[in-house]
Amino acid sequence: MKLITAIIREVQLDRVREALIEADIKRITVSRVSGHGQQRIEEMYRGQIIIPDLIPKIKIEIAVNEAFVDITVDTILKSARTNGNGSVGDGKIFITPLEECIRIRTGERGGTAI
């Protein structure tokens, strides 16, 4: 089992979500987050150009069995890229081992609980 965490642009959320549903990945968690990396955005505030410290992003978390890791990552990669080629600020994907998953309602454990 793996936990796939993707940080993407807010505007790409619908596109990524629809692509995941098409790939038969329907159980996701979405959070609004903010952070900064290489992407720099200039905004105009009261006639002055400012560069915000934290840029709003979307965090998607998906717990998957081993068979769905590559499918999930490839789907996010293809659908989250800006203009199909990608640009700075498109985001990151993290894959971490998932030690245990327990469904609260039934008490199921492991891959069947996902």
Please provide a written account of the structure.
- 15% of the residues are buried.
- This protein has helices at residues 13-22, 69-80; strands at 2-8, 29-35, 43-45, 48-50, 55-64, 91-97.
- A hairpin with a 2-residue loop joins strand 3 and strand 4 (48-50).
- The strands form 2 sheets. A 4-stranded antiparallel β-sheet has the order 2-5-1-6, with helices on one face. Strands 3-4 form a two-stranded antiparallel sheet.
- The N and C termini lie close together (9 Å).
- With 114 residues, the protein is α+β, with helices and mostly antiparallel strands.
- It has a single domain, classed as Alpha-Beta Plaits (2-Layer Sandwich), CATH 3.30.70.
- The radius of gyration is 17 Å and the shape is elongated.
- Helix 1 runs antiparallel to helix 2.
Question: What would the keywords be for this entry?
Answer:
114 residues, 4-stranded antiparallel β-sheet, 6 strands, Alpha-Beta Plaits, alpha+beta
Number of helices: 2
Number of strands: 6
- Helix share bin: 10-25%
**How big is the Rg?**
17 Å
Under the CATH scheme, which class?
Answer: Alpha Beta
Question: How is the topology of this model organized?
Answer:
Blueprint: E1 2-8, H1 13-22, E2 29-35, E3 43-45, E4 48-50, E5 55-64, H2 69-80, E6 91-97
Antiparallel strand pairs: 1-5, 1-6, 2-5, 3-4
Helix pairs in contact: 1-2
At a glance:
The chain is built from 2 helices and 6 strands. By secondary structure, it is an alpha+beta fold.
